[in-house]
Every structure is written in C-alpha cells, then in structure tokens.
Amino acid sequence: MNMGEDKEMVSLETLRKKMDDFAKARDWEKYHSPRNLLLAMVGEVGELSEIFQWKGEVTKGCPDFKEEEKIHLGEELSDVLLYLVRLSDVCGVDLGKAALRKIELNAIKYPAPKQTNDHCVGGEDSSNKIKLNEEN
Ligand SMILES: Nc1ccn([C@H]2C[C@H](O)[C@@H](COP(=O)(O)OP(=O)(O)OP(=O)(O)O)O2)c(=O)n1
C-alpha cells in the first residue's frame, strides 16, 4: 500500500480498538494501568522533544527535516497519541467526545473577536447582517 495515496480517515475508535487488541493479544492488559500508561506517554513526549532539542526554531511544515527525521517524528507523535488513546480508554473516557466538548468550552472562554461594521453585509438591520471574516 502506498501510504502517501491513502486518504482514508483514521478514527480514534479504530486506534482505541487496535490498542485494545494489541494489549489483549500479548496479555499486557495488566501492565496497561492508568498510571503506567501516563508515565509511558510522558516518556514518549520526552522522545518527541528530543527531535526538536537544540534545533533552534523549526518552521511550519519542518522543511529542513531530512526524510528519516520526518519518519521518526511521525513515530514519536504516534507513540504519544497511541498511549493517550489507550490511557483515555482504560480511564473510561470517550476521548473524541471529550475533545469536541473541550473545543466548545475553549470557544466560550476565548471568544473570537467581533468583526467591524465595515465588514458586514445584509442591510441596515444589524441582527440580519452576515459577518465576513477577512481571512475567508
Ligand atoms: N507495554 C507496552 C509497550 C509498548 N507499547 C506500544 C505503544 C507505543 O506505540 C510503542 C512504544 O514502544 P517502545 O516502548 O518500544 O518505545 P519506542 O517505540 O519509542 O522505542 P524506543 O524507546 O526504543 O525508541 O509500543 C504498548 O502499547 N505497551
């Protein structure tokens, strides 16, 4: 399979199930306690940090990374994600639902700035005006 051409979406549920199967197949469920998984995840965050350590600022898209560094980056990001998904599962938290709810809470806590009238269309009644975002 050519990974670059595979545009299939990967769900958190797929990852959750695969991690559960992985642990069950090895009889590793006894090791996958919340505390162990949290520590394992933090260890992987450390490994992820090492990739960026001493590099100075890294620009968006990591254009200066060699091909093998990009692959390594994907591996460490995956380790963090997989332990996070597994940790959420063994804690009985639906990570997808919790994350969507948190995004909503974030939007309430940090409201987007209101657009000025100059950027509104829709007549004089301001309640019907469509707010246009300059970035759109
Ligand atoms: N008890 C374990 C051990 C590993 N894994 C899985 C989750 C991670 O995706 C990956 C972590 O494996 P390693 O501990 O071997 O870590 P690395 O892959 O980072 O190897 P290294 O630390 O040698 O770079 O394997 C797991 O689920 N449960």
Can you describe what's shown?
GO terms for molecular function: dCTP diphosphatase activity; magnesium ion binding. This protein has 136 residues and is mainly α. The protein has one domain (9-131): Orthogonal Bundle (Helix Hairpins). The chain has four helices and two strands, in the order H-H-H-H-E-E. It has helices at 12-25, 34-52, 67-90, 95-109; strands at residues 120-121, 130-131. It has a two-stranded antiparallel sheet with strand order 1-2. Helix 1 (12-25) packs across helix 3 and helix 2 (34-52) packs antiparallel against helix 3 (67-90). The longest helix has 24 residues, at 67-90. The structure holds 2'-deoxycytidine-5'-triphosphate (DCP). 2'-deoxycytidine-5'-triphosphate binds next to helix 3. 2'-deoxycytidine-5'-triphosphate is lined by residues 22, 28, 31, 47, 79, 82-83.
User: Mind describing the biggest β-sheet?
Assistant: 2 strands, antiparallel
The DSSP helix count reads 4
Task: Tell how many strands the DSSP assignment holds.
Answer: 2
Task: Please identify, by name, the CATH architecture.
Answer: Orthogonal Bundle
- Under CATH at level 1, the class stands as Mainly Alpha
* Quaternary structure of the protein: single chain
Q: Supply the helix-strand structural class.
A: mainly alpha
